[in-house]
Write a structure and sequence with these properties.
By secondary structure, this protein is of the alpha+beta class. Helix content is 33%, strand content 34%. Helix 1 packs parallel to helix 3 and helix 2 packs across helix 3. It is globular, with a radius of gyration of 16 Å.
């Protein structure tokens, strides 16, 4: 497992489908995961510090876990099978550790609310990540390269095309 951070959310230029872009903490590898529009909005809203007058689904889940004294300790993109990414949410409740199956988009939306670290399995990174050869210093440069990549890619081009 490698620790990841959410680098951003964008849209593929072909189908206008949202993509969350995870970056490895230790290298310049980026893992794009196609997600749904509601989940993209949920992730972006929290990352941008926006709030809604009433709790959205992931806010509700986070609030419920907090009220029940359950801690989200981490989320992980665990595997890629038949072009579908799988994830798990790790919870600590009454001294017990539980792993709950999840879609990556829901796990990430919860992680940004809980402040939980994000991980991805080494084999998922090896199979689907994009690596930049040089150090990534300039965010604008990475965004431009990623946008250029998105202009020419479709989900079918990836072993892990959709969630």
């Amino acid at each position: 497992m490698q620790e990841m951070v959410i680098y951003g959310v964008s849209f593929d230029m072909v189908g206008k489908q949202p993509i969350v872009l995870l970056k490895t903490v230790e290298s310049n590898k980026f893992l794009p995961i196609w997600i749904g529009h509601p989940e993209a909005a949920a992730i972006l809203m929290k990352l941008q510090g926006a709030s809604t007058p009433r709790p959205m689904t992931h806010d509700l889940l986070s609030d419920m876990l907090g009220e029940l004294d359950v801690e989200c300790t981490r989320v992980a993109v665990t595997e890629l099978r038949e072009n579908t990414f799988y994830a798990s949410i790790s919870l600590r409740v009454n001294g017990r550790e539980l792993d709950i199956d999840s879609r990556p988009s829901d796990a990430l939306a919860l992680a940004v609310r809980a402040g939980a670290p994000i991980f991805a399995a080494d084999d998922v990174i090896a199979e689907s990540a994009i690596e930049f050869e040089h150090e990534v210093e300039d965010t604008e440069e990475v965004v431009e390269k990623f946008k250029d990549f998105l202009d020419h890619v479709t989900p079918e081009d990836f072993a892990g095309g959709s969630e």
